[in-house]
């Protein structure tokens, strides 16, 4: 085992003990010497372990006393309960809050906490500019001519190689590139569904998926979902005879941040395969684990080609590049045909640039950085929420991704909160966007991909003040 | 009137007299002096007029005798008749010839005459590479962050400005950018149709539109279409009570190359508006007039916002960039919402580069060049077809665009011809791709966007030889 691997293994081991409450707030950690003895490592390696934990705000040093576990403010706030949607396929009319919120995309005069995007120095913009320039020069026709329908070969090769790390064994020819992750899901759903079909999803659910399903004339089953472990499998079993397709955001789901445990992934994959119900897996957040290894996907447990694994670099690297992909399993021809008909091919330039970024190892370095920044951000958000939001607030405890799900008491309507916040230059995502039923009216999603600074802290506090005002007004 | 305008006006005037047979093969043209007197122009201007006509192969000089009208080989071949599809909404299963043909996109080992794309030095590749590099540097985040849903503002402004030249008066905010022209049509059709609706189209029709309609669960009415003037308006009137949407490629249509006269455009627009049936206008070839002014669009005659005008630079500049747009009239909110749901936003980089290319005037220079090359190419194709194809062949007479529609006698099945040609490294587009009915089996489309050279000439001749062999075999 290499030294650097060893040090990060040990750090991760201790980190998860702290996060899971095995080591509690104020507990003294083993000394440097004890760690050396226990793991048979050098003093230097042991010191690196503590520095790593300190940089993640998991521990703090007391002069002459050693290291102690930090207070993890997000631990103090209760988790929202498992969701409880009505188990009936139903079609409400989409409400216009969605259009209102998404009309703000790309605006620079507003603090955008409403979309799950990493902003500012979270993304390696100057490195990516260089990659684009190089790709433009390197591509035979500079990307001016049509690419093949399946998309850039270098990118598909790099994505296939990375799939080894999460237990899949994809090959270049298993993959099709798309205009971002949502486009991958859209192509799959168009390829597999016919109007009147029923699709099962998590609840609350990413609004793009809800709107997509409605637009294609599908019926939607919202499944009860736990904020840590994802859909309740019992509920899926209950409706299994009534559904034609299932769509899940398996890892660090938006909005609730759930990550399905391996055993749940396996069980769901086997259950759906046994009924020949395709599973469209949206895995755009999988690379954003706060620490440790990237989680497996449902695709890792797919032995029949029944899982269509969709992902992108929109959440981790460059949203504006519109680079995504899908490994559609046994449905490849169908998906390829829909891509051809809807957009012929995709732009090759950004795909080539991303492929080179992955190949050079810069992506992994960037991810390491980004994950740590996001984790610290999440802690900061949780601290401010605890200090400034109404006392009865509940928040999710994601272990990765970009979304925080916040549940207020029932006196607060988050559509009213949106209206109040947007006047102060803050955009939030009201809970009603994430369902086709009349629920989540007192919940909202905040993205923690905005770099931390005093202005962000002050705006977050403002949201808290506005929420308290609404609470008083409606009491 | 400026001098350069004057000279090109006069040249175009004479050119159209030659093309329309008012001046016939071998007819002597007026002398330079006569032209000077008739139009009150200088000797130099008159000489430029003749040089222009000569460069288009429309006239030739005889020493000491003056200029004479050339033999226009395409004039000798008869035009295919008006099409005659069954006037019933029907759904055949798509046949697999389409997948077979489109699987070749982007291949470099095959002569691709099957897609309507301009290749090689027809496109200003090195100029576009420079634009990309500059756009990457100029964009605030290098295109890394999400653009607004409606797309790049500079591009929308430039497209709006150009719309003045064809009688529309679009503004930046009337436009939404898309991933190419086909994606624009797809977004419009998804925004406006519901499964079971009926759409009226030209016949033969661009296969992407047929497949798109089938994929969305729509019924399709194929309308009789004249190879010069487009759909037969009487037929549209006949089915008007049975249709919900109409899609037309109004200018230099693919595959037949028809261009609707202004009075037809106006009549169709008024007819559809009176019945509240939206018209999706696909105008991707409009900029590719061989000579003279770019034609008007149906959108030019739209007073009610009922026309959704779709276009792109895929046929004129950079297919691989996937840059298109739509002016959706009164349906803007619906189209914007579908774009949001299916792909969130589009890649900004290529849009910015194209906007700058338009702004700099390089696009107009490029177009002038490209139009002339395409016209000469078309003449060369027609000459080889006349010399080497079976005697009873008929070909369309497009005045722009990239497609030639070729009709053989009924002994030739162009799917068989495809199979024979692909073995020799040539890809053609069999007529059966362009309909959902059992017709056009003896027709095919050839793209004339491939730069002319000896190899292309020899491959075209090979197609002729193969066609003659098939004719003998099947007689």
Automatic annotation (TrEMBL), chains A, B:
Keyword check for Ligase: no
Q: Which Gene3D superfamilies match?
A: Aspartate Aminotransferase, domain 1, Type I PLP-dependent aspartate aminotransferase-like (Major domain), Winged helix-like DNA-binding domain superfamily/Winged helix DNA-binding domain
Q: Which residues form the signal peptide?
A: none
**Can you give the residue ranges of the HTH gntR-type domain?**
4-72
GO terms of molecular function: DNA binding; DNA-binding transcription factor activity; pyridoxal phosphate binding; transaminase activity
Q: Does the keyword Zinc apply?
A: no
InterPro entries attached to this UniProt entry: Aminotransferase_I/II_large, HTH_trans_reg/aminotransferase, PyrdxlP-dep_Trfase, PyrdxlP-dep_Trfase_major, PyrdxlP-dep_Trfase_small, Tscrpt_reg_HTH_GntR, WH-like_DNA-bd_sf, WH_DNA-bd_sf
UniProt protein name: Aminotransferase class I/II-fold pyridoxal phosphate-dependent enzyme
């Amino acid at each position: 085992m290499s030294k650097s691997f060893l040090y990060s293994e040990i750090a991760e081991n201790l980190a998860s003990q702290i996060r899971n409450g095995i080591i509690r707030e104020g507990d003294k950690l083993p000394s440097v010497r004890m760690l050396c003895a226990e793991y048979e490592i050098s003093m230097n390696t042991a010191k690196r372990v503590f520095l790593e934990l300190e940089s993640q705000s998991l521990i703090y040093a007391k002069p002459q006393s050693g290291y102690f576990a930090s207070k993890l403010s997000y631990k103090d706030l209760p988790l929202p309960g498992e969701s409880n949607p009505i188990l009936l396929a139903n079609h409400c009319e989409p409400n216009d809050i969605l259009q209102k919120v998404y009309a703000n995309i790309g605006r620079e005069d507003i603090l955008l906490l409403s979309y799950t995007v990493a902003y500012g120095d979270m993304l390696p913009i100057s490195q990516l500019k260089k990659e684009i320039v190089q790709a433009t020069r390197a591509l035979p026709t500079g990307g001016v001519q049509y690419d093949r329908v399946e998309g850039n070969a270098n990118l598909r090769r790099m994505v296939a190689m990375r799939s080894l790390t999460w237990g899949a064994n994809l090959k270049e020819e298993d993959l099709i590139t798309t205009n971002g992750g949502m486009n991958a899901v859209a192509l799959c759903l168009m390829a597999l569904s016919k109007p009147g079909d029923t699709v099962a999803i998590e609840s609350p659910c990413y609004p793009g998926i809800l709107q997509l399903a409605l637009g294609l004339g599908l019926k939607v089953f919202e499944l009860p979902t736990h904020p840590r472990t994802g859909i309740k499998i019992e509920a899926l079993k209950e409706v299994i005879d009534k559904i034609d397709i299932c769509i899940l955001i398996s890892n660090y789901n938006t909005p609730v941040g759930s990550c399905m445990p391996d055993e749940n992934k396996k069980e769901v994959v086997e259950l759906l395969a046994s009924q020949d119900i395709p599973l469209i897996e949206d895995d755009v957040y999988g690379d954003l684990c706060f620490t440790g290894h990237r989680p497996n996907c449902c695709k890792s447990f797919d032995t029949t080609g029944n899982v269509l694994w969709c992902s992108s670099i929109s959440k981790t690297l460059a949203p504006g590049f519109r680079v995504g992909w899908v490994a559609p399993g046994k449905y490849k021809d169908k998906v390829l045909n829909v891509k051809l008909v809807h957009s012929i091919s995709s732009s090759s330039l950004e795909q080539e640039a991303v492929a080179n970024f992955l190949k050079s190892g810069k992506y992994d370095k960037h991810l390491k950085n980004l994950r740590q920044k996001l984790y610290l951000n999440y802690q900061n958000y949780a601290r401010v929420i605890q200090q400034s939001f109404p006392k009865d607030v509940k928040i999710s405890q994601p272990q990765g991704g970009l979304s925080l799900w916040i549940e207020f008491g029932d006196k607060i309507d988050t559509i009213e909160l949106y209206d109040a916040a947007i006047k102060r230059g803050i955009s939030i995502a009201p809970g009603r966007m994430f369902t086709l039923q009349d629920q989540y009216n007192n919940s909202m999603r905040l993205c923690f991909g905005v770099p931390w600074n005093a202005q962000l802290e002050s705006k977050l506090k403002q949201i808290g003040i506005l929420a308290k005002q609404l609470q008083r007004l409606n009491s």
